[in-house]
Amino acid sequence: MTAIDLGLPGLGGLDGVPTTDEPQKAKDYKSDQEVRWCPGCGDYVVLNAVQSFLPSLGLKRENIVFVSGIGCSSRFPYYMNTYGMHSIHGRAPAIATGLAVARPDLSVWVVTGDGDALSIGGNHLIHTLRRNVNLKILLFNNRIYGLTKGQYSPTSEEGKVTKSTPLGSLDHPFNPVSLALGAEASFVGRAIDSDRKGLTEVLRQAAEHRGSALVEIYQNCPIFNDGAFDVLKDADEAQRRIINLTHGRPITFGRDDEYAVVRDGFGLAVAKTSEVDGSDVVVHDATDHNLAFALSRLSTQDLTHTITGVFRNVQRSTYDDAARAQVEQAKQAQTADLAALLRGKDTWTVAG
Amino acid sequence: MTAIDLGLPGLGGLDGVPTTDEPQKAKDYKSDQEVRWCPGCGDYVVLNAVQSFLPSLGLKRENIVFVSGIGCSSRFPYYMNTYGMHSIHGRAPAIATGLAVARPDLSVWVVTGDGDALSIGGNHLIHTLRRNVNLKILLFNNRIYGLTKGQYSPTSEEGKVTKSTPLGSLDHPFNPVSLALGAEASFVGRAIDSDRKGLTEVLRQAAEHRGSALVEIYQNCPIFNDGAFDVLKDADEAQRRIINLTHGRPITFGRDDEYAVVRDGFGLAVAKTSEVDGSDVVVHDATDHNLAFALSRLSTQDLTHTITGVFRNVQRSTYDDAARAQVEQAKQAQTADLAALLRGKDTWTVAG
Amino acid sequence: MSTEVGNGTAPEGAEVRKLDRVVIRFAGDSGDGMQLTGDRFTSEAAAFGNDLATLPNFPAEIRAPQGTLPGVSSFQLHFADYDILTPGDRPDVLVAMNPAALKANIGDLPKGGTLIVNTDEFSKRNLTKVGYASDPLEDDSLEAFQVHKVAMATLTIGALESTGLGKKDAERAKNMFALGLLSWMYHRPTEGTERFLREKFAKKAAIAEANILAFRAGWNYGETTESFATTYEVAPANLNTGTYRQITGNTALAYGIVAAGQRSGLPVVLGTYPITPASDILHELSRHKQFGITTLQAEDEIAGIGAALGASYGGALGVTSTSGPGIALKSETIGLAVMTELPLVVIDVQRGGPSTGLPTKTEQADLLQAMFGRNGESPVPVVAPQSPADCFDAALDAVRIALTYRTPVLLLSDGAIANGSEPWLIPDVDALPDLSVTFATEPNAPDGSGEFWPYLRDPKTLARPWAVPGTPGLQHRIGGLEKADGTGNISYDPANHDHMVRLRQSKVDGIEVPDVTVDDPSGAARVLAVGWGSTYGPIGAAARRVRKMGMHVAHAHLRHLNPFPANLGEVLSRYDKVIVPEMNLGQLALLLRARYLVDAISYTKVQGLPFKAEELQNVLADIIKGVEA
Amino acid sequence: MSTEVGNGTAPEGAEVRKLDRVVIRFAGDSGDGMQLTGDRFTSEAAAFGNDLATLPNFPAEIRAPQGTLPGVSSFQLHFADYDILTPGDRPDVLVAMNPAALKANIGDLPKGGTLIVNTDEFSKRNLTKVGYASDPLEDDSLEAFQVHKVAMATLTIGALESTGLGKKDAERAKNMFALGLLSWMYHRPTEGTERFLREKFAKKAAIAEANILAFRAGWNYGETTESFATTYEVAPANLNTGTYRQITGNTALAYGIVAAGQRSGLPVVLGTYPITPASDILHELSRHKQFGITTLQAEDEIAGIGAALGASYGGALGVTSTSGPGIALKSETIGLAVMTELPLVVIDVQRGGPSTGLPTKTEQADLLQAMFGRNGESPVPVVAPQSPADCFDAALDAVRIALTYRTPVLLLSDGAIANGSEPWLIPDVDALPDLSVTFATEPNAPDGSGEFWPYLRDPKTLARPWAVPGTPGLQHRIGGLEKADGTGNISYDPANHDHMVRLRQSKVDGIEVPDVTVDDPSGAARVLAVGWGSTYGPIGAAARRVRKMGMHVAHAHLRHLNPFPANLGEVLSRYDKVIVPEMNLGQLALLLRARYLVDAISYTKVQGLPFKAEELQNVLADIIKGVEA
Ligand SMILES: Cc1ncc(C[n+]2csc(CCOP(=O)(O)OP(=O)(O)O)c2C)c(N)n1
Ligand SMILES: Cc1ncc(C[n+]2csc(CCOP(=O)(O)OP(=O)(O)O)c2C)c(N)n1
Ligand code: SF4
Ligand code: SF4
Ligand SMILES: [Mg+2]
Ligand SMILES: [Mg+2]
After folding, report:
1. Residues 282-321 of A with CB under 8 A from C
2. CA distance, residue A31 to nearest chain B CA (Å)
3. pLDDT the model gives residue B346
């Protein structure tokens, strides 16, 4: 299994990207372009969070690239004072893959929406995840098509009434985390637009992860799907619903850890911490594929429980490292003699 | 959640498809076209198995349609004396979806390959599964691109040396069952080309299932990937490796049920039946999403353990039933008055 | 319900001037409800019996911050006492609700034009936001115009005090104030709008009342203040008698599909994926499922057309709708439809390109993609509507061709047609064409073998039989590989391939399309203007203007781009000069030159906007002078 | 190593006849190794110094059952003592290894032609399998030919008895027996083949020996038996001096990309997805990673071109390869490359269409797709090789244009070129064009603001700067929305859009391409044949034949389809008649007629096969007679 040997285990997500000692501020990451989202759009807060977070990485700005597809969220690169490409609908992961393979010295981020990533772009997303290309994918999930003015998306709940589904949508939605885990993702996390701290923490771990990191961000679209995540923003409700994960820590949540996650058959359930034996409380292990999947199922469309943080985080060979290693190996093995290549084995000479 | 109510729970996969009392034979399903696969190709046995199985459904042949993409396996429809379309690469699920939505009286089958379904067609596949369109999808997995003469596929093992990867492939392969489960599949099964009995049983359950049924078939390509599944065809090896599932039955396998599947953390492991307490042996429950996923992980690329049978089989509203129900509801609710539609609400008259 | 024409009572006081046509543009922030205001004035004009045409102009897809230039939304309408062809080149009256709207639109207002401004928004902050150093209402920069400064917000809030509505909510009704004022100026009937508001806000009586009050306040403001010396009258046009409605291109196109489903007796399956400016076709069709219409929002364009094609194979009328970038993605599947010879309607509402381009702007640069954007020799008929209402007929025609000849058909609309609207003489349903089809039910092998040959052809149309699954004894397989003519079996035979390539071409070449008619009143024209699609209005209007100038010009407009009408070559040959105005770089011109070796001159503009009649008038006039010189 | 020409010793006994050219076709079952046999004979002829051209003909992709007609595989080669242009219309000698091969190919053998048959396969069973009622070797159906019946299998097995190899394995070597026999007949040098066999089976010495024995047995069979009265000599051609090798189009194309990477100093990233007949380009490039080449087999064509474009954005040479259906899928992304103005090479190895069509057959029907298959005005340069070896130069030229003008370039090869082979005068590496590029490193804003303007242009090429990520201070954003010229900011400004549409067009129109040269030895031609791509050989050969008939004809062949060479219009105008032979329905003809209003006549054949020189000879002759009459 050469491919695996080629991987450089132990490498961090940003190794090879030049750093700078100059202190950076959030505003260093703001471009001169006027931000054009609707007032109150969740995209603003995410943009600010990212711009405030990036300085902590201490990277040279010119070595950061944001590649997006098409959608409101995909306007993101215009507002970043980095390199960027606002590409075409659904294709950002493919374009970013080529860029990442060609340039180990870049930190490549993909910004996409629930339609861009999961509808038209679904295939590129799952293949990027299985290949484990060193990309950080920020999926802005507002459960609607914003840019095209409000049709349902693959993450909209069944029965959703939209412009394109006046009698209610019929599709059973994707659970983006389950989908990613089924597609061999090595890193899957989730955060909520309004939770700057939680989002920043997931971004940090994603940046440090070498390989594809999918970060689903619940994002409110006040215009076409307002309040989709309100239950998570109400202080009391949040206590009952949001389950934040920390690797190696027992999974409890709510005021004074009122609730705990326990096993239930092959799945998981929520119990009152007071009513269960401490040893029954599930301890989060971000390397356990099955646990991650069970957690994704506990985190349902209706937000009864919403799990945030990092579901899965494992090391495995990345496609881009391996591809470069193969080229290096070949260079070691043979000299690049063009003349010899063109001549080949079997030539003849016509004398004058 | 109207969409769910619209579903017609309890319906069988074939309800609505006209049946016949005339006894049918396998040969009734053979078309006049000469079968053109390489000698020894696994596709032959699958073709025979399907042709022998269909008569048991007692359907009118003219109400069966096979839709395929492009690939060796996708030649399948030409050899069936039913209706059929040999479409374009990767798009069969999309085409079949339109057909199934339009025609409740048809039994629609999709035939596809590992490249056709999982490479170019991956997006259509996962969306079909989440929508739960009433299609039976036969995925011929020979872990290679046959028709284009031997490039690696999304199910080829890492490091595979092929025409397109002389130094070994770099991609981490999909586990098609995990992928389907992550994509909300309501039915996922697996069989081996050479195992006529097992294949027939999975086909039977798939046919009876109302909704999308994905059946992965391990298929040998003697020309470009010969022996990919040989370890499963060696009588002794098979005993140690093949784990066949039956809903409601303890998962044991091997000679005299020598081995059993037991829990291992959130996942599963194989133990000597003699060495574990009977109560520790996992009982298969095809409705348990988490168990199905754990089983898919136990069934690894290297075939150390290969699980066959039906991983998951649950009832939920199908897209095509729901879509038709919506049209019916609309017809009940309003009369289809074209003149009224054209006039609309706001007209004026120019008098002569 | 339907309103009788008339009762636009002349208000007292102000002097009344008669006009034959007026162009009004309402401009404001996306949030100011300009589209609604324009729609209402349009209905009033329609109800009054004027002919009219409209041109909405949205900001780019994403809502820009309030009060900024990118956030400006406008709606222009042209109404007259005769039949008009365009929304007008330039407004006679500009209503500007804020500084951004003023800045973005003042350039289009001709000197002497009327400008009505909502002064309340002209705060220092708002002015600087759009780069006004000084307040244009104070400095002399607007002296070329008849400026009316009205504190619309303040007046509206005042008028609504009684309602106890909050300031913010009250202020929202200022667009109705503006509408009221304009309605007064142009003697528009008012009850239509009041009824409309009551219906629209049926559930929010307070809001309804507020809007009606604001509307009346606007009317009374004109009536009572001296500031408006004149009001204007535009008499009803004498249009063909009958019942009319206002309709946009996308709605007319959707209705055309509904009607085609009814007239063919086939269920309709729309497989599609949202994209500007085509999404409204999906939205509209999804509201009419009672007509046996299934709308399937697929995961992408490829799945959308795939589902439509699958449905066609199953005996439904498969339809897919998109815009240029979506056509690019669908092209492989269109090729499969060409090879399998199944009926399919592919709608392309063209927008500015290439790539994502200008999604909200209009263009007609997908013609050659429609003709040639597939691998191999893959001929497809192409049909284009020439105006919003015409989309209805064009859709029926596209379906006729698809069903009769068993072929995918490309229907090329564009952004201007899609969102523009005009009065539509509502057709008599029973007079619509009969599109019924017959499916194959019997074996047809000429050798009497009792077999079914899916590629045996109708000698006249060259169409192959449509044998739908479920038909006993006709089991057959089709696909993308080359087929033997007749049996439909896979064939690698060189002669058969050559034969089939030419046969598919002849099938399309042989499609029956009506001769193109030439508009040349005097019959003395030596210059012919040829167009297609939404240039119909501007070319037609320009031709009229040219003729008013005493010159002669002929105008031919193509509904069918493939195949061309049989008489087209002869028509072209009749004129000394042929000019082809297009919103692309000369795509139809290329086809005409190649086909007829006629030295057609291109006049092109690719600005994402329709041609102006005046601009084309000058172009035509120059050419005519050149020829006559 | 390299072989010196000569040492084709004349065998004793048999009479020797001199020929200037011979066409041989080896035909057998897919399993019989006919491609290898043909390849070897080709190398022998090459080593001997003949000029030659080959035409392999595979069965459809899937292996058909043994001994059936669809399972027949053949390899035709044409070798001569002068420079030839085609693989030959019809074989002079047909080698048939089984009844299926005989049945499938005998129709092409002219009366009097030589037929060599392996009698061992002519069992009742095999005969009926392909529908021979009676054995053609027994009845008189072959009397028009010089038939040589040879029990090749039996003789081979006999010759290998000593080796102790099993019958089945021994019998496998019968193709080498056939090769030996033909080598004897045509005085071919033998050591090349023996060396080849030793290398090929280095690890299986027994197999190597067996094949060599069989090969010699074939030679000796000719030498010793009386059955072959004559042997033939085809003298070496006097080709330009230098070192040659045999090369196929796909290999030459891949080498061109490797060379371009080396000469530009850029790493190459091929993003692609397998498809017949383009896959071998991926296969070949994946074997040369030491040249800094990364090959990425993506999940589909769209991802393939996406990855290539992403790599180009990163400063690599992005390349993608496919066939017609893949181009259809890539078209949206090609549009993005046009809008972002990044270098990209898009290779289309054309095959029979439409849809899946005839995947293993050749055609040139993607020209108009290459030109127009995108939404909006999306101009792309188009380059086409004219023969297998020419693919090397064409690839370098495509890369030159892509890098110099920062644009996607379409490179149109086809199935005949891709799999065909010919001798290639190996170029001197240092004489290859310098393709080095310079990346932007400094801010460039003309206003001295110190900003970087990604859409500021080189006045001469109109190319925009290539500023790769990692360059300090040049951070910028590009994308598919319309860009303001200069700053590259998103712009919805109508005038800017019109300007940019025309600018992108002028950039492509302004690409420097050499004038087209006309082959008209006598200078007296009044008829001009214009072609592009793989029709070069047949048109050229036909022209020679016509001239041999004492008539005059000119031949111009286009490497550049977009833009056209500057002198093309003038060239066309010089002739009374212009004829355009194409393997499509007249796509180049359409472009010529539209652009130059010249009444170019199309001669088209769409059979999935190259033109025959004789066929074109007659077409040209008729036209010339018509003109001169
Ligand atoms: C090929 C193509 N198809 C369709 C579209 C239209 N379109 C643009 S964005 C979009 C979906 C946007 O939804 P999402 O990805 O969720 O992003 P959001 O706007 O919600 O942030 C669609 C359908 C397009 N631009 N290109
Ligand atoms: C659009 C398009 N891309 C690529 C191809 C070439 N192609 C045909 S089948 C195939 C893959 C076949 O592999 P698989 O799906 O596993 O089927 P198998 O032949 O192994 O049964 C490819 C790449 C094609 N026909 N069309
Ligand atoms: S439409 Fe929704 S997602 Fe898009 S910018 Fe507006 S608020 Fe944000
Ligand atoms: S190539 Fe492989 S998969 Fe295809 S027909 Fe031959 S054996 Fe079967
Ligand atoms: Mg969204
Ligand atoms: Mg396969």
Report:
1. none
2. 35
3. 82
